[in-house]
Amino acid sequence: MICGQTTQDNRTAFEERPNVTYEDKENFQTSQDFQISYSHCHEEMLKNYGGQCWEIFNDSMSELGKENWCNMEMVIRNYHKLTECIEFICNALGCFYPNRVVEQLFVRIHRQYFSSCNNEEDLPDAPAGVVLVSTLLPILLIPFIVYIVVWKSSLRD
After folding, report:
1. Which of 20, 26, 56, 140 is the residue whose CA sits 20 to 30 A from 62?
2. How many angstroms separate the CA atoms of 30 and 137, rounded?
3. pLDDT value at position 78?
């Protein structure tokens, strides 16, 4: 198995974890036993414990090496562990997930690790001949089409 590659067994194991919500499993919205109290979020504690999750992620990314930061197959496991860590802390501290503090943490992570990643390849410029034909062909066709319309109109009169 390639590092970071997801197999069906790994995916099933991740999906069976109770703390993670997936978009195709929306039964959490109707669950009656969802009784976590969100009366007061301890944001300062969330920042402190979130910082510990950040440090763990930072260490794992350093081990991975800067050259692999844009390779999603290599990064996804560390990113998933970070997400689980933050979500667990939010639930333990009575905070909604996601929230403003978590958003700031993830923005910071993306700025540091993924800002130089380009997920779109730059397309090469089209050859000059193709550009010239694509530009001139419609321009030359317009007078011809106008001539045909005028000619057909004069035949009806």
Report:
1. 20
2. 60
3. 92
